[in-house]
Write a structure and sequence with these properties.
about 525 residues, mainly alpha, Rossmann fold, Serine Threonine Protein Phosphatase 5, Tetratricopeptide repeat, DNA Cyclobutane Dipyrimidine Photolyase, subunit A, domain 3, 3 domains, two-stranded antiparallel sheet, 7 strands, binds flavin-adenine dinucleotide, binds ligand DLZ, binds iron/sulfur cluster
Length: about 525
């Protein structure tokens, strides 16, 4: 490259990290960073309005820190009349403006955008260096090597590799405390008398307020409230949220990971996924902080291990599956499910208290914790036989942390079993008893969780048996479902028919999505 050569560095909205690979070794004096707010990204699904506002505001704050650090940043706003609406259109415009000799970019988080980056070299007749995203522990190639030849992929074994690789919670070559996984100690139901810490809320500054106004004007029909917007949009504030979690919630994170309480959206969860996923927080650094708290005796092992497993285990594992399975993963529909999602997924207006709580807080905060996503909204969609592609679109729309690489395997694989068991060894299905055990929802529900059939019975109960019955051909041989199938088979035919009739009547009453 000549002394005056210039490199264009397009930086995507989920690449807001200082140590992003595309900046590594680059000279600020000979580089132009390009950041683009584009209609394509704001509209590939009808995102929750707080999700759009969070990402655009975090991008606008990040520009300032990059400029303060000496970088030249060309920033294109969504309301710029010359905005072409696409990453490729904006890169074309920036090439006109800056006449670069090369493009350096970090690989995209999803197939859709990665295909765009890969087309740039031909389209612009410039060298394009697409760098691996080093914010993840395992490259795609490393994951594929681990997975190669295995009959079944299981997160637990991949997770152990990541523990060894990072040295997190290791005692020499043994797991800290003698066990790799303390999940059995992480299933306490929460009681009202326990004090649940509230995550810090960040009042919108002038930059965020301008974004909120723009989003209000441009996306009037998208789901979601903006009045309650309280996300951190700078690294500094995200670190404040991280410290608050480590100090106040982490000690009990393990015990109450699966608990649910009316009117308490957060409990002991971290609410850090939006920040980790855009790059404001570094996942490995966060895990090292968690380990340090454990070593200092401030946090019990089940909490530290449980949290670290979510990040270096599940988060890395679902990403590996997403890239390994390919762009057609989204079309899988193992259980041949085709029902539209009911309309109340967009309003929260249903008499089922558990669903109205999980969906209501999703509309208000663009957040629900894992067990609400898996065992309330996900479980219900699975039991009614909702189309997995529609379920996937809903989850991608409504959560502030939703990007296809992490959302799709969690939804289509873990929650809807639509990949036939690549990600999870059994469908996560349950009747009302599980929800009653892990929450206080049923006490204030119009339905009775103890009843199995009839108009006042908890709909989850009959739907559960209906699900097993109609999928018997595909699920009967699953060892982990052997017990419920034996119970079903032993049931009197009249009881079975009453359950079938009750579930059918309920299914007929559902109004489809708008
Ligand atoms: P905590 O409970 O505090 O967990 C700590 C961190 O671990 C999270 O911030 C997250 O980074 C990571 N983590 C935990 N579970 C998972 C998981 N299963 N997969 C990947 N990372 C995990 N997570 C997303 O980040 N984006 C999504 O779009 C997303 N969609 C989901 C859809 C469904 C149907 C399900 C069942 C789960 C989904 N998850 C998704 C995983 C998980 O629910 C969220 O990461 C978590 O609820 C975020 O809240 P938190 O930060 O308070 O998490
Ligand atoms: C999700 C999102 C939204 C809503 N808007 C933008 C945007 O205007 N500009 C941008 O660079 N990124 C945005 N994103 C995040 C991108 O969709 C994300 O970076 C890609 O999905 C990565 O593959
Ligand atoms: Fe949900 Fe059934 Fe409990 Fe009502 S009774 S809250 S529908 S599980």
């Amino acid at each position: 490259m000549s002394a005056t050569a210039k490199t264009l560095i397009p930086l995507l909205g989920d690449q807001l990290s200082f140590d992003i690979a595309s900046l590594d070794g680059m000279d600020p004096a000979r580089s132009v960073i390009l950041m683009m707010e584009v209609a394509d990204e704001t509209a590939y699904v009808a995102h929750h309005r707080a999700k759009i506002a969070f990402i655009l505001s975090a991008m606008r704050h990040h520009v300032q820190t990059l400029r303060d650090a000496g970088w030249t940043v060309d920033y294109v706003t969504l309301d710029d009349p010359a905005n072409s609406g696409s990453f490729t259109g904006e890169v074309a415009g920036a090439i006109e403006r800056h006449k670069p000799d090369a493009i350096v970019v970090t690989e995209a988080g999803e197939w859709r955008v990665q295909a765009m980056l890969e087309a740039w070299a031909t389209r612009f007749a410039l060298p394009v260096d697409i760098r691996l995203d080093t914010r993840f522990l395992a490259t795609h190639a490393e994951f594929d090597t681990w997975a190669a030849g295995k009959k079944q992929l299981r997160m637990e074994f991949f997770y152990r590799e990541m523990r060894r690789k990072t040295g997190l919670l290791m005692d020499g070559d043994k797991p800290e405390g003698g066990k790799w996984n303390y999940d059995a100690e992480n299933r306490k139901p929460a009681a009202r008398s326990l004090f649940a810490p509230q995550p810090p809320r960040f009042a919108p500054d002038a930059v965020t307020r301008a974004v909120l106004d723009m989003v209000t004007a441009r996306f009037p029909n998208n789901i979601g409230s903006l009045e309650t917007f309280a996300f951190a949009t700078t690294r500094e504030d995200a670190l404040t949220a991280q410290t608050a979690f480590l100090d106040h919630a982490l000690p009990q994170f393990g015990d109450y990971q699966d608990a649910m309480l009316t009117g308490e959206p957060y409990l002991w969860h971290s609410i850090l996924s939006p920040y980790i996923n855009v790059g404001l927080l570094d996942p490995l650094h966060l895990c090292r902080e968690v380990e340090a708290r454990y070593r200092e005796g401030k946090v019990p092992l089940n909490s530290a291990e449980g949290f670290i497993r979510q990040i270096i285990g599940w988060r890395e594992y679902v990403r590996g599956i997403y890239w390994r399975e390919g762009p057609d993963y989204v079309t899988r529909n193992h259980l041949d499910a085709h029902r539209p999602l009911p309309d109340f997924y967009w309003t929260g207006k249903t008499a089922m208290h558990c669903l109205s709580q999980a969906i209501g807080q999703t509309i208000d905060h663009a957040y629900a914790h894992h067990i609400q996503r898996l065992m309330i909204t996900g479980n219900f969609a699975l039991l009614i036989g909702a189309d997995p592609a529609a379920v996937h679109r809903w989850y991608l729309e409504v959560y502030a942390d939703a990007y296809e690489w992490v959302e799709l395997p969690n939804t289509l694989g873990m929650s809807q079993f639509a990949d036939g068991g690549i990600l999870a060894s059994k469908p996560y299905c349950s009747g009302g008893a599980y929800i009653d055990r892990m929450s206080d929802y049923c006490g204030s529900c119009r339905y009775s969780v103890k009843q199995r059939t009839g108009p006042d019975a908890c709909p989850f109960n009959a739907l559960y048996w209906h699900f097993l019955d109609r999928n018997v051909g595909k699920l009967r041989n699953n060892q982990r479902l052997a017990m419920p199938y034996r119970t079903w088979e032993k049931m009197a035919e009249a009881d079975k028919q009453a359950l079938r009739d009750s579930a059918s009547a309920f299914l007929d009453s559902l109004a489809p999505s708008p």
